[in-house]
Amino acid sequence: MNVLARMTSTSQSRLSHAVARLEDLGWVERSRCPANMRAVHATLTEAGWHIVAAAAPGHVAEVRRLVFDHLSREQVHQLGAITQAVLEALAGQGYPVPPAPRAG
Q1: How far apart are the C-alpha atoms of 52 and 79, rounded to whole Å?
Q2: pLDDT confidence band for 102 (50 / 70 / 90)
Q3: DSSP assignment of 46-95, as one string?
Q4: Helix (H) or strand (E) holding 29
Q5: What is the CA angle 48-54-56, rounded to 5?
Q6: What is the pLDDT of residues 1-45, one digit of tens each?
Q7: Using CA atoms, how far apart are residues 17 and 38, in angstroms rounded to an integer?
Q8: What DSSP character marks residue 34?
Q9: How far is 14 from 3, CA to CA, in rounded Å?
Q10: Cα distance between residue 72 and residue 80, in whole Å
Q11: Please, which residues have CB within 8 angstroms of residue 79's CB and are 6 or more apart in sequence?
């Protein structure tokens, strides 16, 4: 949860409250990390994955409408390169950076 709080630029307390609400909805489960009993993992439940999957097409369509429909192919490639440079700089400063998305 500490890593997730840093990745989302929020406090652990605020994240804990948000995860508690998701737990109440049955979308997330918390469990102790077996390697570090002080750490807590938050994992999407099957119901949580269904919510994400249901929201994904609308989210993709909205991002495409608001961002990518206004960019040329070259600008999209530039945006990718800029984003990669920023992520590398963040990683160099110790910020947890999510893995690159898979192609396709």
Answers
A1: 25
A2: low
A3: HHHHHHHHHHHHHHHHHHHHHTGGGS-HHHHHHHHHHHHHHHHHHHHTT-
A4: strand 28-32
A5: 100
A6: 777 888 788 898 999 999 999 999 999 999 998 888 888 888 999
A7: 18
A8: S
A9: 13
A10: 12
A11: 71
Cα→Cα distances 9→14, 58, 97, Å: 10, 25, 12
At 103 the pLDDT is 61
Nearest to 42 by CA among 2, 74, 96, 8: 2
Tokens encoding 35:
């390697």
Supply 63's token pair: 């991002």
pLDDT at 104: 54
Specify the residue for token string 């508690």: 20
Name the residue with tokens 């609308």. Answer: 58
Q: Which two tokens stand for residue 17?
A: 């409250």
